[in-house]
Design goal:
Blueprint lengths: L1 H25 L10 H32 L5 H34 L11 H6 L1
Helix pairs in contact: 1-2, 2-3
């Protein structure tokens, strides 16, 4: 059951991420859209891509677990778990600073807006 759910989630989220990225590439945007609409779509696309990669690694891990469970090959399972987590961690490490900066520059108050009194805004500055 875990394999089926994670495999289906991986399929649907990867298709959704591809559609979001294609909509970014093919749509015509005005100059104002580069401040809000494009960064929001890009953040959403990368988050959905992360969900896709994570669910793909869960499907891979459950498949290997089902194959090697009866053989009691625990060392092999450990290697598979490490190799399954490696692509996800590499993706997060490579995209984290980009997503963090996009999030900060998209949602922080700009030059013409009044600064808010929220704690998050004060921590960021």
């Amino acid at each position: 059951m875990t394999f089926g759910f994670s495999d289906a989630l991986s399929l649907f989220s990867s298709i959704a991420a591809a559609i979001i990225f294609m909509s970014i590439i093919t749509a015509r945007y005005k100059q104002d859209d580069f401040l809000k609409a494009l960064p929001r779509k890009f953040i959403l696309g990368v988050v959905i891509m992360f969900i896709s990669i994570t669910s793909m690694m869960v499907a891979f891990g459950t498949t290997v677990y089902q194959i090697f469970y009866e053989k009691k090959a625990y060392l092999m399972l450990g290697l598979v778990v490490v190799s399954a987590c490696l692509p996800m961690l590499l993706f997060v490490a490579s995209q984290f600073s980009l997503i963090w900066h996009l999030f900060i520059y998209t949602y922080q108050p700009g030059l013409f807006r009044k600064p808010s009194k929220r704690v998050l805004d004060q921590v960021i500055r």
